[in-house]
Design brief:
Number of strands: 0
CATH topology of one domain: Leucine-rich Repeat Variant
Strand content: under 5%
Order of helices and strands: HHHHHHHHHHHHH
Shape: elongated
Number of helices: 13
Distance between the termini: 151 Å
Helix content: 55-70%
CATH class of one domain: Mainly Alpha
CATH architecture of one domain: Alpha Horseshoe
Structural class: mainly alpha
CATH superfamily of one domain: Leucine-rich Repeat Variant
Radius of gyration: 44 Å
Length: about 300
């Protein structure tokens, strides 16, 4: 009996040892990967840190989300911007509240990327920070926030049609937070067919909020430039590329340039009368000054005379 008990204890000990060894071998690669990631994230080279951030966006490491949110505080603005982009590609609504903190970043490129990603992710957490930008003195930031809010509203409307309960709940909360009366008919229809009590309560709250709003929507429409682009596109499609008849008047400005008359000296050159005889000999029609003739002059005259005789 003692021998059997000893063998059973030894068998269980060996099983436990093998299980612990397998857990160590499974955790070792992950720990090694994390060690390499942390080493590169703390590098002095911002390009190296950006490369690791790009890797974290798709590597499915369990600590990827945490590491990316920490990278939002990187001292280099380009790395912060890459971290925002990476979190956006993960499509996790939990990232919105972390990303929205950079809406006041000192660098314009970071703020613009934050607005784009927050509008892309949507959710009720995106409404308040985007609304706060509508009073920005920077027209481009204000325009980007308006476009992002429109995307959030469209995404929320799509979420009401989702089969997932959490998606419908988030959509109802978002539409209520947007304070735009236009989705009200959709919510009135949705509450009739909704079966989940949690979602139904969220829809009811949104209906009550939107019902008490004035007729005009509080969320501004897309910027004027976007509407002009759409109008121009429609006109081109209808007119089949017929040139516009609109005439643009440009200001006409007359510039008076000073007129200056330059008087050039006039010099008269006296030419001798050309002989009426046939041009059988070479004659000099310009009166030459009296210059002593050299032997070279005589040779040239003789050469010319020989040409005339020929």
């Amino acid at each position: 009996m003692v021998t059997v008990a000893f063998l059973l204890i030894l068998f269980h000990f060996l099983l436990l040892r093998s299980a612990l060894a397998s857990e160590e071998t499974e955790e070792e690669p992950e720990d090694r990967e994390l060690e390499v990631i942390m080493e590169k994230l703390t590098s002095d080279d911002p390009f190296m840190r950006s490369e690791v951030i790009d890797y974290l966006s798709y590597c499915s490491h369990p600590k990827a989300f945490e590491l990316l949110t920490n990278s939002l505080k990187d001292p280099d603005w380009a790395v912060r911007k890459d971290a925002v982009t990476a979190l956006g590609s993960m499509a996790d609504l939990k990232a919105v509240k972390y990303i929205a903190e950079l809406l006041t970043d000192e660098y314009w490129h970071v703020r613009k990327e934050v607005i784009r990603v927050v509008g892309l992710l949507g959710g009720k957490d995106a409404i308040e920070p985007l609304m706060s930008l509508l009073s920005s003195e920077d027209e481009l930031i204000k325009s980007s926030a308006q476009k992002a809010l429109v995307k959030v509203g469209n995404k929320a409307i799509e979420g009401m049609l989702s089969k997932r309960i959490n998606d419908r709940w988030n959509a109802a909360k978002t539409l209520g937070a947007l304070k735009d009366k236009r989705p009200l008919p959709l919510l009135l229809e949705a509450i009739k067919i909704e079966k989940d009590a949690k979602v139904k309560n969220a829809i009811q709250e949104a209906i009550e909020i939107l019902s008490n709003l004035p007729s005009e929507p509080q969320v501004p429409p897309p910027p004027a430039e976007s509407q002009e682009d759409i109008t121009v596109t429609e006109e081109i499609a209808v007119s089949d590329f017929i040139p516009s008849q609109e005439t643009v008047s440009l200001p006409q400005e007359t510039v008076s340039l000073p007129q200056e008359t330059v008087s050039l000296p006039q010099e008269t050159v006296s030419l001798s009368q050309v002989s009426e005889e046939p041009a059988t000999k070479t004659q000099d029609t310009i009166k030459k000054p009296d210059v002593p003739r050299t032997n070279l002059d005589k040779e040239v005259d003789a050469f010319l005379a020989s040409l005339d005789e020929e």
